Amino acid sequence: xxxxxxxxxxxxxxxxxxxxxxxxxxxxxxxxxxxxxxxxxxxxxxxxxxxxxxxxxxxxxxxxxxxxxxxxxxxxxxxxxxxxxxxxxxxxxxxxxxxxxxxxxxxxxxxxxxxxxxxxxxxxxxxxxxxxxxxxxxxxxxxxxxxxxxxxxxxxxxxxxxxxxxxxxxxxxxxxxxxxxxxxxxxxxxxxxxxxxxxxxxxxxxxxxxxxxxxxxxxxxxxxxxxxxxxxxxxxxxxxxxxxxxxxxxxxxxxxxxxxxxxxxxxxxxxxxxxxxxxxxxxxxxxxxxxxxxxxxxxxxxxxxxxxxxxxxxxxxxxxxxxxxxxxxxxxxxxxxxxxxxxxxxxxxxxxxxxxxxxxxxxxxxxxxxxxxxxxxxxxxxxxxxxxxxxxxxxxxxxxxxxxxxxxxxxxxxxxxxxxxxxxxxxxxxxxxxxxxxxxxxxxxxxxxxxxxxxxxxxxxxxxxxxxxxxxxxxxxxxxxxxxxxxxxxxxxxxxxxxxxxxxxxxxxxxxxxxxxxxxxxxxxxxxxxxxxxxxxxxxxxxxxxxxxxxxxxxxxxxxxxxxxxxxxxxxxxxxxxxxxxxxxxxxxxxxxxxxxxxxxxxxxxxxxxxxxxxxxxxxxxxxxxxxxxxxxxxxxxxxxxxxxxxxxxxxxxxxxxxxxxxxxxxxxxxxxxxxxxxxxxxxxxxxxxxxxxxxxxxxxxxxxxxxxxxxxxxxxx
Length: 718
Description:
The chain is of the alpha+beta class and 718 residues long. Helices cover 32% and strands 25% of the residues. The chain has 18 helices and 25 strands. The strands form five sheets. Strands 2-1-5-4-3 form a five-stranded antiparallel sheet. The longest helix is centred in the middle third of the chain and has 38 residues, at 319-356. The protein starts with 11 loop residues before the first helix and ends with a strand.
């Protein structure tokens, strides 16, 4: 074996070799450079029971270049005898053929990302065809051109119990958890599989009693190789007969227990059906299997699934090995249940989040949205949300928010804030007034007694609200600590809006500031992008640089591009892989009403104002070729609204008529601050009779407030 003298540089290979050489038992060749130079006094004595070949672990290191060829190695311990790791040979020659694609992919990932891949349970081939089970860690070099260092730990089976539990508990993704368990089980056999109850796989609740019928789905299978047709691979449901037989086997006498089927003849006798044999038996040659139930402790216990370890019949399971297998599965079953609970919460929050996404735009605005949840093994789906909806008065509301935290607490707060914002905007409140209410709500939800979730705080959540008027093409926008939207004008200029910073929702009283209203013109063809921080955050860039990148990408959207496709392109350009935080984007393309579909008149608040309004509206509706009955209703409606404005308000009266696809929308604005109210019995009194007429003639009507007064709007079907 090649044991090259190591240079004095502190590469990963040198550091690993110097640290590991101390633990080579007496009788093994020295691997430490100091030992190679005769400095053996620093070597720690090794107990006799380890030197005798019963050591719990032996460590080694191999250095690889960028082509994954061995350049140096330190595998002189006796346990590594037979591994042909000479310099100049491909490292993959030390692996079983079916593991080569997976290990090669992992090594390439480490070189590309610079992130180590630690504690992979792996088999290595000796010259005589025998195999050595090791724990493989792939470490990046300081510079990419220096390649990789592979740390190798040859372990006794018992050490897998600790190593496996450490590896299995690192992910909350149920598929990755099952895969880690299967990889650990491979140390005891030739093939390992994990089959989970379908309810566990989907994150549903598990039954509180011992199950007599289990529907199993294959969650993990190792090694990674080409399997024969008919064999069950990850993601496939086991045949119903196979699920039933496995359930009967591990639930004998209503108690979960491990079973061993020693050879192929016994396997075929138990499985009965050739189809089931093809689905479950991984090799044609004679094979035995140990089936270990994954049991969730309780009274009674609940079976989450079955782990299966297959090996050749000429290598039967010893009692000590079965005890090790049972201990490993017992130690890690709770990790599977934690992943199930996380999957359930993830699914629930994701469903709520997707329900909040805007469906469509309308005649005056086009809407597209993309929501990309965080990686499954993150802390949970975050509180990002977007919403877009038409308001009754013809405007469109665009809302984006980011609730602090993850999981069900964030989801509950997100849902409440979203619905409250929609209700307040539909009631006619301005964006800054809505944010004032949301600010109070976040403060109340943080209260220990009235909060939605114990231990959860939404203080510091952000929100941005924009209202688009399709007639004036003005957008009124208010922000509570949210990142500024990006506006692309029809001439192609793109950039973030200049908004005054705000501390966010629920800030302490001393820090609270009034919410500003930023008004700007968005001509037809303008594109507005609202988003959350997950889209623009990049460890290598400042947040301002991330926003500039977003502006550059959004500016490439052509007016003729399908907006939903453009939104997906923007997200894929800025966040090509799933992030540790949610990614949310809302694109709105302003269309507005055509010039001939709207008309506005400004009338003095005099007694002749209703008559003038009737004449002008009648002439316009004839020009629009409106039906006679609709024309009469609209003329009467305008007359009543203008009469009320002259009677109860001061200053000029503004009348606006809008022709939309669904009907006619009338708006009458004045300088009054009183709210018109419909009361029972108004038809019998002079005061209030006009509102009863309005109520009977329209499909809906309402009031919204402005800086100078109010606007009463009403809609009539065409």
